[in-house]
Amino acid sequence: MFDGASGIGPSGPRRPVPTRPAPMDVRVMLPMLRAEAAEVAVEFLAMAAAENAIAVTRWVVLNWGADAGLRGAAHPSHAAALERSSPAWKLADARDALDTACWRYRLSTGYDGLALARQHIVHRYGTVVADYTLKPLVDAATAGAWLDDLLMQDGPEPLPPEPEPTPTQRRASAAAMAEWSLSLPEMDDLGRRLGALLAACAADSGAQPSLVTVDALAAVRVAIGAALCRGFDVAGMQAVLDTWTAATGGPQITVADKT
C-alpha cells in the first residue's frame, strides 16, 4: 500500500502520481515565443506559469497532502520537486521564461511587463493564483528596481529581431502544446486514441485506409464528441487537433460544429 504522507511504498519510494492537466513544458516553446511580439509572449507565459502553479498545488496535495510544505526539508516532496519532469521544476522554468519576456516587454515598450502578466492571470485565474505565481518575480523586481531605472533612463528602444524558429523547433513546440492540451481532464482518453490512430496510419501500406485505421478514427471521433459534451468548445478542440497534426504529422481531423 502506498503511504501518501511519506511517499514510501511497500518496496521503497514510489513515483508521485501525475496531475491532469500536466504541467506545461515551456522550454521547448521558447524559440517560437521569442519570435512573437513581446506582449504576446508575456500573455502566453503568464498563462503557462499560472497553469503550472496550479499543477504544483494539485500535485503536492494529491501525493502528500495539503500540509506537505510544513513537514521539513527532508520530506519526499522536496526531492521529487528537483526532478526535471516535476510540476515544480516546470513552474520554475515558466517563471524564468516569463521573467525574461517581461524584461523584453519593458525594454521594448517602456511599460511594466509584470503588471501586464498579473492583469492576464487575475482575469483568468484570480488574485490568489496571481500572487502565488508572480511572487518570486515581484520580489526580484523590487530588489532590482535600481537597475530598471538605469536601463530605462533613455526610454525604450527597439530590440534586435529574434531568429525565426526552425521546422524542428516548430514541431517540438507544437508537440509540447498538444501534450498539455490532451492532458486536460475534459479530454479523457482522446490522447490515447489519437496515438492509436497515428500507429494505425503508420502501419497502412495500401492506397485505402485499413479497417484498423477506420476503427481508430471512429474511436477518436467518439472521444472528441465526449469531450464536447463535457463542455470543451468546438474552436478549442479544432485548435488542439490542428496542433496535434502539426506535431505528429498525423491526419488532419475536422470537428463538425453542430450548433
How many distinct folded domains? 2
Which percent band covers the strand fraction? under 5%
Which oligomerization state do the chains in this entry correspond to? single chain
Cα distance spanning the termini = 48 Å
Largest sheet: 2 strands, antiparallel
Count of strand segments = 2
The count of helical stretches stands at 11
The chain-level mean pLDDT equals 87
Low-pLDDT sequence parts: 1-6
Across the major sheet, the strand order is 1-2
What is the helix/strand order?
EEHHHHHHHHHHH
User: Cα-atom Rg, whole angstroms?
Assistant: 21 Å
Helix content: 55-70%
Structural class: mainly alpha
Gross morphology is globular
Q: Which helices and strands appear, and what pairs or packs with what?
A:
Layout: E1 8-9, E2 12-13, H1 30-34, H2 38-64, H3 76-81, H4 87-109, H5 113-125, H6 127-143, H7 145-151, H8 167-182, H9 190-203, H10 211-229, H11 234-248
Antiparallel strand pairs: 1-2
Give a summary of the structure in a few sentences.
By secondary structure, this protein is mostly helical. The protein has helices at 30-34, 38-64, 76-81, 87-109, 113-125, 127-143, 145-151, 167-182, 190-203, 211-229, 234-248, and strands spanning 8-9, 12-13.
